[in-house]
Amino acid sequence: MSSERSSVTVLGLGMMGTALAGAFLAGGHPTTVWNRSAGRGDDLVGRGAVRAAAVGAAVEAGQVVVVCVRDYDAVRETLEPVSAALAGRVVVNLTSGTSQEARDLADWAAGHGIRYLDGAIMMTPQGIGTPEAVILYGGEQELFEETRPVLDRLGGGGTYLGSDTGIPALYDVALLDIMWATLNGFLHAVALVGTEKISATAFLPFVTGWLGGVTSFLPAMAEQIDAGEYAAHDATLETHLSPLGHLIHESRARGVDVDLPGRTKAMVERAIADGHAFDGYARLIERMRGR
Asked: Degrees (nearest 5) of the Cα angle 194, 197, 202?
């Protein structure tokens, strides 16, 4: 598939869909756009995109059809009426959802002769097309390699995760899990120091420096988790328990929510009660697995 000649259709012109279409235009691809509701895409048309009046016409215009809409129900509503026109074409679905939704849609596509890749975008719209833009893909490897010259227009971090179309969605929610946990920890900490009128910006340098040290623990923890062996190399769970108690006491005394640290303390306490007081923090993966 020639990156210079492949025509691309983008279905869905929300903020992300608009950014995707813009990246294809910037890469020199003939680009057709369609959106369920009218009134979007004027800027793209001004830059050379063709706006299709109907989804059928949009699909017929593109060798590669990229879908980025609200959810997988909206993907189905958009694609099912034009399934015959999609037969033999490449569909790259970049809509957020669950791993099972991605697998189910891949099965539907295969049943209609549609060549299908599923992807997860790990970047804000403003970063699409930059070297830092990470997009994860799953599906047939040969199809991914064939389509890659087109997909590379979306950013330098395109990564193939294998033939299972559900894995990108799983990575997506797992990485977002880390993001939300980190942001929630930051907000809780800022609320705590804020009780002494310490601003978030004054506290921030200490946060960023601390996070660098915290992430240095991860390689050893990952090895422990994979091996299923949790011997403490720095601090035992018993050692963590007392500082967690201090955090909860300090938070409660200052009127700051204690749900987040309270849950962590409860997990540590349960692991200790199960006989793992002298294991390292990675032992808590077993609590999270429900074992």
From this structure: 75
Q: What does the domain layout of the chain look like in residue ranges?
A: 8-164, 170-288
Structure tokens at 180: 């939300």
pLDDT digits (tens, 9 = 90+) for 141-166: 999 999 999 999 999 989 999 999 99
Angstrom distance (rounded) from CA 291 to CA 288: 8
DSSP one-letter string for 13-42: -SHHHHHHHHHHHHTT--EEEE-SSSS--H
CATH code of the domain made up of 170-288: 1.10.1040.10
Pair of tokens at residue 167: 């894995």
| Euclidean distance between CA atoms 262 and 190, whole angstroms | 17
Per CATH, the homologous superfamily of domain 8-164 is NAD(P)-binding Rossmann-like Domain (3.40.50.720)
Model pTM score? 0.94
Q: Are 244 and 265 in contact (CB under 8 A)?
A: yes
Residue pair 117/164 in contact (Cβ under 8 Å)? The answer is no
Residues 191-204 pLDDT 10s: 999 999 999 999 99
